[in-house]
Fold this sequence. Notes:
With 285 residues, the chain is an alpha+beta fold. Helices cover 27% and strands 18% of the residues. It has helices at residues 52-61, 111-124, 158-162, 167-179, 226-237, 239-246, 252-267, and strands spanning 5-10, 31-36, 42-43, 63-69, 78-83, 89-96, 133-136, 143-147, 189-191, 197-199.
Amino acid sequence: MARSAVVALRNPADRPxxxxxxxxxxxxxxxxxxxxxxxxxxxEATRPVIDxxxxxxxxxxxxxxxxELVPWGSNYTFGVAxxxxxxxxxxxxxxxxxxxAPLHDFPTGTLYRREQASFLLSQRxxxxxxxxxxxxxxxxxxxxxxxxxxxxxxxxxxxxxxxxPSTEIERLVLFDHIxxxxxxxxxxxxxxxxxxxxxxxxxxxxxxVPKLRTVLWQFIGQPVDAGLLCGLQKLLDDEGEVRxxxxxxxxxxxxxALLRRVRSFVDExxxxxxxxxxxxxxxxx
Length: 285
Ligand SMILES: Nc1ncnc2c1ncn2[C@@H]1O[C@H](COP(=O)(O)OP(=O)(O)O)[C@@H](O)[C@H]1O
Ligand SMILES: [Mg+2]
């Protein structure tokens, strides 16, 4: 008999359900579990790791069988249970267009499209930074649906970790420059159970005007890693295909600006300094 899955939000034992909005409060990791409502809500073990193609099929084809609102975040974001036709279950993050908070500097109702474009860009670059993401219908209408990434055990000092000058973190930083990410906080950097780096929350990307806001500034003045530069060159070589793929999700001027940013890194492969505008994201999460 099919189980009736519910999504259970679990917090590390020493943390309140909604972390206090204090300057020094640790950045929360989202710990989600599927649990069986017929079995007293007992929490299940971690979901198995699945590869990208399997994840995309799951995201497109599964049924959303339960949803739980994430109690932090700037928009209405839901942890959801995904159930396949054969009864297998997984976890996703659903961000409906209808739950997006209006912003003065991004067109209303487009953030879920930017989540999708970010995943496609990460795949095009071969960097595999953004968890598998699709756009589809859900309980609150169309939105982005992304694979939930189980965070690793808490880092003792996450800020120190993410500010290291490693190539894996550089990939995330270069992605933000290219995608023009206006919201790279520590809470949007994830380390999964296998130690792999992921970036999440790419709703504020691809603005046509420069808007990079990030807390990761450790590469200023440094040359871009040669391997990463090859990814950028490949993007330019495939410009026709890139335009075709992303034009479904981004406006023409946003696409032009993206390619301009890539070209300028290829022409001058050094991380630029701070801009005279705001350089760090708004808010904590
Ligand atoms: N793919 C994911 N895997 C694991 N946790 C996620 C994922 N996407 C989002 N989260 C968690 O949900 C929270 C809210 O999601 P986020 O994308 O930041 O939404 P918002 O646009 O509302 O800020 C994040 O701070 C993070 O804790
Ligand atoms: Mg967020």
